[in-house]
Amino acid sequence: MADTTQPETPESGESAAQPSAPEAPAKPPKPSKDEKRAERLARQITAFATGHGGSAEGQIAHIGRGSVRIALVGADGEWGVLVAPSQESARRAAEIAGLTLQDAFDGELAAKVRTGPYEWARMAGIQLGGPGNPPAPAS
């Protein structure tokens, strides 16, 4: 049997082939404030890694109300610290930068840290009566 289906006809004067207007490209959503912070931290992590042997490892730790520390150790043993507003932004920054995160700042990560003369003098000064914290006020 032959197909007897008729093509649809336009109703009440509408044309069969209406040219559609080109759709404007959808604008990407604006990044949130947290995402912007994470991206800025990621750039800083990447710059640190680039300047210290090309790679870095890190550890994230809560340091107080609304603050999280990202401790960084470069491939050359130099270290640094960044502060993030939340665990989420710190982890997102590490993910963006490709930072290898360790669970704790001990063992292999701590063994990679190279301390310089400033750190040794500061540590010795505190222990040996050198410049340290001022005494507490008498109450």
How is this structure best described in words?
This protein is of the alpha+beta class and 139 residues long. It has a domain at 35-127. It has helices spanning 33-51, 87-97, 108-112, 117-127, and strands at residues 56-64, 67-74, 79-84, 100-102. Helix 1 crosses helix 2.
Topology:
Layout: H1 33-51, E1 56-64, E2 67-74, E3 79-84, H2 87-97, E4 100-102, H3 108-112, H4 117-127
Parallel strand pairs: 1-4
Antiparallel strand pairs: 1-2, 2-3
Helix pairs in contact: 1-2
Number of strands: 4
| Percent of residues in beta strands | 15-25%
Helices and strands, in order, run as: HEEEHEHH
* Number of DSSP helical runs: 4
Shape field: elongated
Strand order of the largest sheet: 3-2-1-4
Which structural category do the helix and sheet elements fall into? Answer: alpha+beta
Arithmetic mean pLDDT = 80
